[in-house]
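quick one: magnesium ion bound model?
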Amino acid sequence: MGNDYRTGIGYDAHRLVKGRPLFLGGVRIPHSHGLLGHSDADVILHAVVDALLGAAGLADIGTHFSNKDPRWKNAPSVIFLKETARMVSKKKMKIVNLDCVLLSEAPKISPYIPRMKAVIATALGIPADAVGVKASTNEGMGFVGKKQGMAATAVALVRA
Ligand code: MG
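yep, here:
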């Protein structure tokens, strides 16, 4: 491993619907609605996975974990995170840190952030202080503000 540092960016959005459990950052959160998707639709983890894959020069989340693949039907996205960590280390790269922002109007996310950081850090094998998780509302504007969905962005740094 040298001193070559590489960044990656990730973005994801999912629709909010009734009758689905809400998973964010690998944590089940009690709420009236959940995110719609093939897997558990964990929008934070999907953004983080894409940031890590991008930093490592790998193809995107949809290529590695296809939403047509029956193996991933309602799958916990922590699986994608663990598999991504394996792919990064296979390329002889080391995850330095990552940071992500959830865009969501409700419910209140802050009580769950320490657990999200712990889940993400454990899945990736990095210290909890190398994982940033933040949340912001969209001030009532757009699909996030109207509670039609949630979005997340993430950046990651790897050392090659
Ligand atoms: Mg997604």
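The mean pLDDT is 97.
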